[in-house]
Design brief:
281 residues, alpha/beta, 60s Ribosomal Protein L30, Chain: A, four-stranded mixed beta sheet, 12 strands, 40% helix
Length: 281
């Protein structure tokens, strides 16, 4: 059994929060650069150039890629042979978020008592934490800051089994089309299919941890990802909604078994920053 002190987790989460918000992942930056080469719209090209310049400035000056530094979503893959010591795992993660958003001068956007007495928590906690228990003696920590603009454009739909694949495709295209410029395109589209009402939304968001171009290992789903991405980019929304070929950088699909009487589908949209960082302890 391997022991890990939760204080180590706090330090890692703090670092991941800061880096996720200030350092655009290389795969995203490369995808934007590639889009710039292929984009026929002059307005679209101008936006893509600005996004690349913005990413370079954010990295070199250690300032946020976007002023909305998001709701902190944390994904854990905890090995069965790991023994966590010296405190609470969730408390350690939230302390890391608090330190990261404070020391990194990141905007604190989380409001407690949202229904009757909204008040900013002033440290961007609590985080949303998803924990999977897996074989092994490692702990994989992924931090995904999710901005409000892109989250507002995400949707879930409890469809009928008779709607089939075409029904899900139409739902995805309709969702992106209705979102328009609001989620700050070029976007990344996460699609979840199956499970239950709550689980399908989890599937859609977790796909956003994939690298740009990382296809689903199921060749049938991989083919749909490529096909639906082409359909999304035919909408002509373009960078910043100013028109063009580059509405989305990628589209990911994840599925899970469903009940015979249900057909849940979810679309989680991520903005052009597509922020996430991962560390394996």
């Amino acid at each position: 059994m391997r022991e890990i002190k939760v204080s180590q987790i706090t330090e890692i989460v703090k670092d991941l929060c800061i880096k996720a918000c200030t350092e655009l992942n290389p795969d995203v930056q490369q995808a934007i650069a590639q889009a710039l080469e292929n984009e026929p719209s002059e307005a679209g090209k101008a936006v893509l150039r600005q996004l690349l310049d913005n990413a370079d400035i954010a990295r070199s000056e250690k300032i946020p890629i976007c002023q909305d530094t998001g709701f902190t979503v944390v994904y854990l893959e905890l090995g069965q042979q790991v023994n966590l010591t010296d405190g609470s795992l969730n408390d350690a993660i939230n302390l890391g978020v608090k330190q990261g958003y404070t020391e990194g001068y990141l905007r604190k956007s989380i409001v407690k008592n949202p229904l009757l007495a909204p008040e900013n928590t002033k440290d961007n906690t609590p985080a949303i934490i998803h924990t999977d228990i897996v074989p092994g003696d490692k702990l994989k920590i992924s931090v995904l800051p999710k901005g409000g603009g892109s989250e507002n454009m995400s949707r879930i739909k409890m469809m009928k089994p008779a709607d089939g694949v075409e029904g899900v495709k139409n739902f995805v295209i309709e969702t992106v089309n209705q979102a328009g410029a609001n989620p700050c395109p070029p976007i990344v589209v996460g699609v979840g299919m199956g499970g239950t009402f709550d689980h399908v939304a989890y599937l859609a968001k977790k796909t956003l941890l994939r690298k740009i171009g990382q296809r689903n290992p199921d060749p049938r789903l991989a083919e749909l990802e490529v096909e639906w991405l082409k359909e999304v980019n035919k909408l002509g929304i373009g960078p910043a909604g100013l028109g063009g070929r580059t509405t989305a950088l990628d589209l990911f699909i994840e599925e899970f078994p469903r009940h015979i009487a249900t057909y849940p589908a979810a679309v989680n949209i991520q903005c052009h920053a597509d922020r996430s960082k991962t560390f394996i302890l």
